[in-house]
UniProtKB/TrEMBL annotation:
Domain called FAD/NAD(P)-binding: residue spans: 7-339
Organism expressing this protein natively: Collimonas fungivorans (strain Ter331)
Note: The active site is a redox-active disulfide bond.
Annotated catalytic residues: H456 (proton acceptor)
GO cellular component: cytoplasm
Note on how the cofactor is bound: Binds 1 FAD per subunit.
InterPro entries in the cross-refs: Class-I_Pyr_Nuc-Dis_Oxidored, FAD/NAD-bd_sf, FAD/NAD-binding_dom, FAD/NAD-linked_Rdtase_dimer_sf, Lipoamide_DH, Pyr_nuc-diS_OxRdtase, Pyr_nucl-diS_OxRdtase_dimer
This protein's encoding gene: odhL
Protein name: Dihydrolipoyl dehydrogenase
Enzyme Commission number(s): 1.8.1.4
Domain Pyridine nucleotide-disulphide oxidoreductase dimerisation, chain residue ranges per copy: 358-467
Pfam family, one: Pyr_redox_2
Source lineage: Bacteria, Pseudomonadati, Pseudomonadota, Betaproteobacteria, Burkholderiales
Length: 477
């Protein structure tokens, strides 16, 4: 019998957490393998996980394309650009999205080669093992067994379906189907006004769909700072995105070419709506299917996540887990940071992830981004704070861009002036938030940001002005 291939570290899952963990482990001198089963249209390997294949990357590609289309149809005229006979080639738009995904898939395979990470295309699962070594089966085109002392689990998450309403990806869509609709639906229903619901709703609204979003919670974007969420809600409504809050979803019936949704609105009245397509985005569940967790006694928590401690250690010796399959925010960049930290801990270093400075972004237009505490959290925690805001309406670069909606908001400790949270709704919020993350990592004060010279004209001046506003001394508003 052939000896199984032996490694120091085997990573199961090639999404942001897994592929980054594998690369960092290899950089630290470990003989490393990464197993991932995602396939492209030709059954070839497509590493990058949900994020690259049906999440962050393709959604940003479509958001960009649909924004160009909307600008060409509406905003260009203001700039003196006249467009006649504007048309939409949806096939080309989707093909471009697919090519962006492919470049990312190929980029990861290249990085594995460059860093001497052995890649296995297939599904990884536990066979047996203990502190000395674990045996892992790879079920792919050819089945093989590999062994390693350290295992990093990075198996990600799957979209949560409504009970009794499975995804068929034709009429009832998860994020996967939402990124591949082949004709613009006249009427599009979205259940869930979270990140995915709002981003996908925005894409198809710009391309011509009449979009209705049904949200069970009574508040819009409850995790976002209230003032920012209110501003965003106002802007989305103005764009034509219809959001109903406090909705109780009842029966969902798929017809031949449409979907009927029965629900009770916030006022308690029974409603019925018929949509050409229905996107269901009500959260994600950890993916441990086929891992054979029970076979080796790997502990899951009551919600199905792999149970880990603060260092991402599981209950099994030398088995670690990162990303969406463990506690904490389901964000690609959180998974990456955990992947790096775990590889460094295996090497005896002290990897660290600070959950308080993980930025969040919603890539709608305007973008919404934040880091740290919201005003309602500080109130609930009884923390004395000062707030400062600055509107993009008063920012020269935003005016030149023709995108003046939204604001930057700073929250700082009333006594020490330490920055406790920064919240942005407006142009390029996803890029602007980085300054706030850096500042908070260095325990900076609002005064520190207020005193730093920012380039003029730039959107980042709004950040400086909001920091000045904490001390009630903004200069341009």
């Amino acid at each position: 019998m052939e000896m199984s291939k032996q490694f120091d570290v085997v990573v199961i899952g090639g999404g942001p957490g897994g592929y980054i963990a594998a690369i960092r482990a290899a950089q630290l001198g470990f003989n490393t393998a990464c197993i991932d089963e995602w396939k492209n249209a030709k059954n070839g390997p497509a590493p990058g996980g949900t994020c690259t294949n049906v999440g962050c990357i393709p959604s940003k590609a479509l958001l960009q394309s649909s924004e160009h289309y909307e600008h060409a149809g509406h905003a260009f005229a203001d700039h003196g650009i006249e467009v006649k006979g504007l048309g939409l080639n949806l096939g080309q738009m989707l093909a471009r999205k697919d090519s962006v995904v492919k470049q990312n898939n190929e980029g990861i395979l290249y990085l594995f080669k460059k860093n001497k990470v052995t890649f296995f295309h297939g599904r990884g699962s536990f066979v047996k093992g203990d502190a000395s070594a674990y045996e892992i089966k790879v079920a792919g085109a050819a089945e093989e067994t590999i062994t390693a002392k350290h295992i990093i689990l990075a198996t990600g998450s799957n979209p949560r379906a409504l009970p009794g309403t499975p995804f068929d990806e034709k009429l009832i869509l998860s994020n996967t189907g939402a990124l591949a609709i082949d004709a613009v639906p006249a009427k599009l229903g979205v259940i869930g006004a979270g990140v995915i619901g709002l981003e996908m709703g925005s894409v198809w609204r710009r391309l011509g769909s009449d979009v209705s979003v049904l949200e069970a919670l009574p508040t819009f974007l409850g995790a976002v700072d209230e003032q920012i969420a209110k501003e965003a809600s106002k802007l989305f409504t103005k764009q034509g995105l219809k959001v109903s809050l406090g909705v109780k979803i009842g029966a969902i019936t798929a017809g031949k070419n449409d979907v009927t949704v029965e629900y009770v609105d916030a006022a308690g009245a029974a409603q019925k709506a018929v949509y050409d397509k229905l996107i269901v985005s009500i959260g994600r569940i950890p993916n441990t299917i086929g891992l054979n967790a029970e076979g080796v006694g790997l502990q899951l928590d009551e919600r199905g996540f792999i149970a880990v401690d603060g260092d991402c250690k599981t209950n099994l010796p030398n088995v670690w887990a990162v990303g969406d399959v463990v506690r904490g925010p389901m964000l690609a960049h959180k998974a990456e940071e955990e992947g790096v930290a775990v590889a460094e801990r295996i090497a005896g270093q002290h990897g660290h992830v600070n959950f308080n400075t993980i930025p969040w972004v919603i890539y709608t237009s305007p973008e919404i981004a934040w880091v740290g505490k919201t005003e309602q959290q500080l109130k609930a925690d009884g923390v004395a704070y000062k707030a400062g805001t600055f509107p993009f309406l008063a920012n020269g670069r935003a005016r030149a861009l023709g995108d003046t909606s939204g604001m930057v908001k700073f929250l700082a400790d009333a006594k020490t002036d330490e920055i406790l949270g920064v919240h942005i709704v407006g142009p390029m919020a996803s890029e602007l938030i980085s300054e706030a993350v850096v500042a908070m990592e260095f325990r900076a004060s609002a005064e520190d940001i207020a005193r730093i010279c920012h380039a003029h004209p730039s959107l980042s001046e709004a950040t400086k002005e909001a920091a000045l506003a904490v001390d009630k001394r903004s200069l341009n508003f």
